[in-house]
Amino acid sequence: MTVLIAGGGIAGLTLGLTLHQISIPFHIFETTRAPKPLGVGINLQPPAVRELFALGLEDMLDEVGIQTRDYGFYTRTGQEIWTEPRGCHAGYNWPQYSVHRGRLQMALLDALRTRCGDSCITFGARVRRYETRCDRVTVHYEVQGSAKTASADMLIGADGIHSGVRAQMYPTEGPPVWGGAIMWRGTSLAKPFLTGQSMILAGNNTQRFVSYPISAPDGVTGLSQINWIAEKTVDPTTHFEKEDWNRRVDVNQFASDFSDWDFGWIYVPSLIAAATEVFEYPMVDREPVPRWTDGPVVLIGDAAHATYPVGSSGATQAILDTRILAAELRGHGLGSAAASAFEARVLPMANRVTLGNRGNGGPDAIMQIAEDRCKGDFTVLDRALPYDERAAHSASFKKLAGLSLEATNNAPALL
Questions:
Q1: Measured between alpha carbons, how far is 3 from 25 in angstroms, rounded to an integer?
Q2: Would residue 144 be called left, alpha or beta, if left means φ above 0 and alpha means ψ between -120 and 50 degrees?
Q3: Whole-structure pTM value
Q4: pLDDT at 242
Q5: pLDDT at 40
Q6: Residue whose C-alpha is closest to residue 234's, from 201, 257, 250, 215
Q7: Given this model, what pLDDT does residue 178 score?
Q8: pLDDT score for 321
Q9: Parallel, antiparallel, or unpaired: how do β-strands 297-299 and 154-157 relate?
């Protein structure tokens, strides 16, 4: 095989589809034995949607999600701070989508199997280590307890925030960095709010609620699948059962913290209560690193630049990574030159986004700015935080992440 890919998530599958599109042989190793549509909602920004359209996946996106119309920030009392149109409604040439992560992943897998056949991916396969020599790479992996090897021109580490490929590059790095925020995530059947295609964030740095629909309303009931995230910050030095992250939890563990969050147009307690299951996640990322390459080995997606899930950066940048890497493969050929060119092109921006999402650089920081300026009296919002300042804050993140309207619409096609 010419290119081996560790990881069959959104990044790995999109890369496989892209390599097939430009006629580069590949094979994917995925640790899961039987993939299922797990997870909750995510958002795909117009630059990533453009690339999925270029892969011929327009109809698929409408099947697994909906086009997002607007994106708004609110105080903890439900007062609007900043709302802006999104995707085509904002003048982009491509829409933004709110989708169920698991359904998107399964749809990408179905498309890959249809185009490339079942043999392009091995399930239950875990990459253990790699060796490089003369711009070739030998991958040692395990399938159901059996040790195997494979040789290729390149190894792409698309194996997520717990990447084994990254662990070999940075053996002393340790676990992801937790800053103390806990997220409880779920989906509930409920009537859509505001425009019916709205994404909202309410609260501040220590407590917030995020919600948006990920399906169109049912023709009979009028109910949509609504994705939501309840988040609270605790002291990161206190003991917490972090080994049980991503577990199912009882809503009574956190629901009381949001019992009075009734904004009129959304009633948070009933949305939380309507969830069939709720999962607990840490708000984690990885420290930015100076390189993602080791000769013909390169990291992409969360393996390279795991960031806090704000600003719809994660899946969007993972998809863009695959297309930028493929463009460098066409320009430089297979091997370390293409890997280094990809790294030089993406790493500085991705590291800035990771650090920005931790502090005041992320778009959601406007909620805490409003909290600090108003000191609890949000009737003075317009005087304490002028509209022009809110607009500038929104524009600054788009520029930081390369998501501005002009940059997106005027950018040449990646492939």
A1: 6
A2: left
A3: 0.94
A4: 52
A5: 85
A6: 257
A7: 87
A8: 98
A9: parallel
Q: How far apart are CA 290 and CA 260, in angstroms?
A: 45
In terms of residues, how long is the chain? 415
List, in order, residues 6 or more apart from 358 with CB less than 8 Å away. 179, 285, 308
Residue 312 pLDDT: 76
Q: Can you read off the two tokens belonging to residue 389?
A: 């300042």
**Going by DSSP bridges, is the β-strand pair 26-30/121-123 parallel, antiparallel, or unpaired?**
parallel
Contact 326, 15 (CB under 8 A): yes
Distances (CA, A) of 371 to 203, 256, 268, 293, 374: 8, 21, 20, 42, 5
Residues of the chain with pLDDT under 50: 243
Token pair of 359, please? Answer: 């502090």
pLDDT of residue 216: 95
Q: What pLDDT does 168 receive? A: 98
125 Cβ contact partners less than 8 Å away, ≥ 6 residues apart: 29, 30, 31, 141, 142, 143
3-state secondary structure labels for all residues of the chain: CCEEEECCCHHHHHHHHHHHHCCCCEEEEECCCCCCCCCCEEEECHHHHHHHHHCCCHHHHHHHEEECCEEEEECCCCCEEEEEECHHHHCCCCCCEEEEHHHHHHHHHHHHHHHHCHHHEEECEEEEEEEEECCEEEEEEEECCEEEEEEECEEEECCCCCCHHHHHHCCCCCCCEEEEEEEEEEEEEECCCCCCCEEEEEECCCEEEEEEECCCCCCCCCCEEEEEEEEEECCCCCCCCHHHCCCEECHHHCHHHHCCCECCCCEHHHHHHCCCCEEEEEEEECCCCCCCEECCEEECCHHHHCCCCCCCCHHHHHHHHHHHHHHHHHHHCCCHHHHHHHHHHHHHHHHHHHHHHHCCCCCCHHHHHHHHHHCCCHHHHHHHCCHHHHHHHHHHHHHHCCCCHHHHHHCCCCC
pLDDT digits (tens, 9 = 90+) for 206-219: 999 999 999 999 99
pLDDT score recorded for residue 240 = 58
pLDDT, position 283: 87
